Amino acid sequence: MNLLLMPPVDHAVQDALATTLLSNLGAFQSFARRRLGDEQLAADAVQESLLRALKADRKLAADDNVLAWFYRILRNVLTDLHRRRAAQSRGLERFATESAVTSELNDAELEQTACACFRDLLPTLRPEYAEALQLSDLDGLSTDAVAEQLGISKNNLKVRLHRARRQLRERLEQTCKMCATHGCLDCECGSNS
Q1: pLDDT tens digits for 114-159?
Q2: Domain 115-185: which CATH class?
Q3: pTM of this structure
Q4: Every domain range in the chain assigned CATH 1.10.1740.10
Q5: DSSP secondary structure of 84-149
Q6: What's the rounded Cα separation, in Å, for the pair 50 and 52?
Q7: Exposed/middle/buried for residue 35 (C-beta within 10 Å: 0-12, 13-18, 19+)
Q8: Where in the chain is the domain with CATH 1.10.10.10?
Q9: CB-based contacts of 70: which residues, under 8 Å, 6+ apart?
Q10: CATH number 1.10.1740.10 given to 11-102
């Protein structure tokens, strides 16, 4: 933009604008706080409104009602905030609903499709491994509960579960051959034995 074509800035009007806005800052924050119910959010809304007002292309004349103009800007900012909060709330609700449905589906799918051979192989594992797998993976107890029941630390339990799963995986590969290599899902080898 050519600076020679820009109208001169009336510094007196701009100073009067800044003085008027700053002298009414408390009223602006009270107005926003009543509508938002949050002190910090209200302060942020007023600050954003002040920035919009100072960046506005509109040049105010001396007789313009600065307060009415600023309250219009503040109401627009508050409306934008309410819209953003509503959109976030809808997004969170949708995420929670989808997560719950997905979780239920995944649990049901795993129960139906996992190879049943591993149940027959549990007794072939070291007894402490079989017990840890039974309590943690099959009975669904928390790591704290399993560690307490077995009388070991959580770190010891993690190591034991790691070794138990590795030993079970090796046994599955020896017993089930192809299906163990390809994921052991929808396995029919349990019905063949």
Answers
A1: 556 777 888 888 999 999 988 988 888 899 999 999 999 999 999 9
A2: mainly alpha
A3: 0.44
A4: 11-102
A5: HHHHHHHHHHHHHHHHHHHHHHHHHHHHHHB-THHHHHGGGS-HHHHHHHIIIIIS---HHHHHHH
A6: 5
A7: middle
A8: 115-185
A9: 21, 24, 28, 49, 53
A10: yes
